Amino acid sequence: MQDDNLSEININDDQKIIENKELNFFEALIPVIILMSLLAYNIFFVEGQEWFGAYTNQIILLIGGFVAMIDGFFNKVPLMIMIKEVWENLKSVFVPLMILFLVGALAGTWLISGIIPAMVYYGLQVLNPSIFLPASVIIAAIISIATGSSWTTSATVGIALIGIGSALGIPTGMIAGAVISGAYFGDKMSPLSDTTNLAPAMAGTDLFTHIRYMTITTVPTIIITLIVFAILSATIDTTGSADISGLLATMDATFNITPWLFVVPLVVVGLILLKTKPLIALGIGVALAAIFAFIFQPEILNGLAETKIGAITTAVLTDTSIVTDNPKLNDLFSSGGMSGMLWTIYLICCAMVFGGVMDAIGALARITKALLSVATTVFGLFASTVLSCLGLNAIASDQYLALVIPGKMFKKAYEDKGLAPENLSRTLEDSGTVTSVLIPWNTCGAYQSSVLGVGVSEYFVYAVFNWLSPFTTLLFAALNIKIRLLKDK
Question: Which residues pair with 6 in a beta bridge?
Fold first, then answer.
């Protein structure tokens, strides 16, 4: 840092927090207030997101970034520092953006190869509507624990479960909420997860102490989640359940359904379990699906384009629709390919611009410090941590910053209160990791809604595990249940 008013707090070689002595709390809040006001106006008063067209949220995030930039100029932050931080933010999401492109390609090739139809075909025969939602939570949780990735879970079994549940007549918001609840439970508890490793690193504890301590709040939360979904499954009216035979017959007539198609998803999951990089694993999944399309679905390919190669290229890059005589299946058997991910990619990039400028001008550090200053009690400290994580998920649009900044800022405060570091690491995960998917412009919210094809507003209330987790951690803090002290260790 070249300017006297700016200082860096180094976390590790790749991450830092910028503090600005010139910036006060109210100035730091100005871009946030404007951003939230514009987003709220768009949600509640503008129908169909026609205010700025299809990319309203993206433009609002850029407006917020521009306001933050002006805020920075008034507080002696050079333009080059802001540009540098924006660039660093954009670089940090390069791999996730490539994953999004590959997920789009995966959806297209898994459709034309018959993999997704096969998942739906066999799933309809196995998953009864009366247990579908809690079963979806459990399936997603198992896959996510095994892979350490909620993103991979959604891109594989999540897509299949959405298809199966839709055919059964279950609202997609409920299905997505069940998938996301299970996926984030597994992501949170898996030693393979990046956030599960990051949280204890920021707090100053070890991985397995962190995981064991998380079970105190996480197990009751997932049990309540399963109970809620069991009740929902017992009460919803599944209009599609009586029409399963017709759906199965239509799929049988349209695709060559065979258990051999499951080789591709099994290979992808196996590669991820072997810690293969996601880009490589998903790339292999796309390539194998293209080969399987040639082998098992030549008629489908001939019906989509003049050449089989052309059909596969179209499925990878752009929209693909396979028409059947059942309207439900027509909606299900369509994919946007890579182009279908562009709206989400633009949203993530715009969010990174806003978050980068806010970080560069020192606003993120200032807001977190203000929350820390009012934490005079143990419960106040937990509450401030939760609010900080929630706020950073919305402001910085990235779950990693929602773990890193509060983790660094609150670490000493927990020590001063005589609290063991796993209290902080658990609170970071309970409020930072799992709530990121509830923010539409956060990288996680944008990804999940795009991959599952369900808007955040549709699944928000049904993502029970995700919004319940912060309340659980605050309840345990308020009642002083299993709050571990340093002297206990």
Answer: 20
